[in-house]
């Protein structure tokens, strides 16, 4: 028959089990706190978004992942997941500036996230004339700087004229002009209502934006989610998640931590 264990041995074993339980409890506590902190940051400070379309090329590319600051314009119901109808308007409001790249909820459904550049402020008159942006009757300087080079599905290079626009407040950014005399290059005058903004994509001939009143139109201040701040990751649009061996080649390393201008 096996002899009983000494009291010291029993005590050591009990202490070991207690230590393991304590270690596990501490790990769970740290994970829970980390998740709570991440949720607070996402809801109130910075939210990650990815770029699914080419409407903001060349500023943003398909496959870019960026952080949007939720506090830049204050908070509305659209600042929070599922846009809970708990209050109207904005609190701690700070108005968007001309030239900001901003995420907003599409006014047509108040659900779909769009990202465009703020072009027109409340009360502005916006018009495109011969591919040149006009704000309040004045043409915005637009100069060609180089070509944006992209490739088709067969690997053939395609060169697209790239221009630089400079807004009245000095904000400067690149735009593309794919189609001369395209449908969006000549418009009527848009009078931006009070409390609304006029948004446009930098890829002017491939952007559904405020120029299309039936699709986007004027964006209420309440619909703004936040301002695009920094690209934290970028990969080719045809990169595959499961083909991990292609990640080093499909990752656009040079775009990491680029500020969004």
Question: Helix and strand succession?
Answer: HEEEEEEEEEEEEEEHE
Radius of gyration: 26 Å
Tell me, rounded to a whole number, the average pLDDT.
89
Name of the CATH first level = Mainly Beta
CATH superfamily: Umud Fragment, subunit A
Helix content: 10-25%
List how many beta strands DSSP finds. Answer: 15
Fill in the CATH topology: Umud Fragment, subunit A
Number of domains: 1
Helical segment count:
2
Class computed from helices, strands and strand pairing: alpha+beta
CATH architecture: Ribbon
Low-confidence runs:
none
End-to-end separation: 80 Å
Set out the fold topology.
Blueprint: H1 7-44, E1 46-50, E2 64-69, E3 101-105, E4 113-120, E5 125-129, E6 132-135, E7 138-139, E8 142-151, E9 157-166, E10 172-176, E11 190-191, E12 196-200, E13 219-220, E14 224-234, H2 247-250, E15 258-259
Antiparallel strand pairs: 1-2, 2-14, 3-4, 3-14, 4-12, 5-6, 5-11, 6-7, 8-9, 9-10, 12-13, 14-15
Account of the 3D structure:
With 261 residues, the protein is α+β, with helices and mostly antiparallel strands. It has a single domain, classed as Umud Fragment, subunit A (Ribbon), CATH 2.10.109.10. It has 2 helices and 15 strands. Strands 1, 2, 3, 4, 12, 13, 14 and 15 form an 8-stranded antiparallel sheet that branches. A 4-stranded antiparallel sheet has the order 7-6-5-11, with no helix packed on it. The longest helix has 38 residues. The chain starts with 6 loop residues before the first helix and ends with a strand.
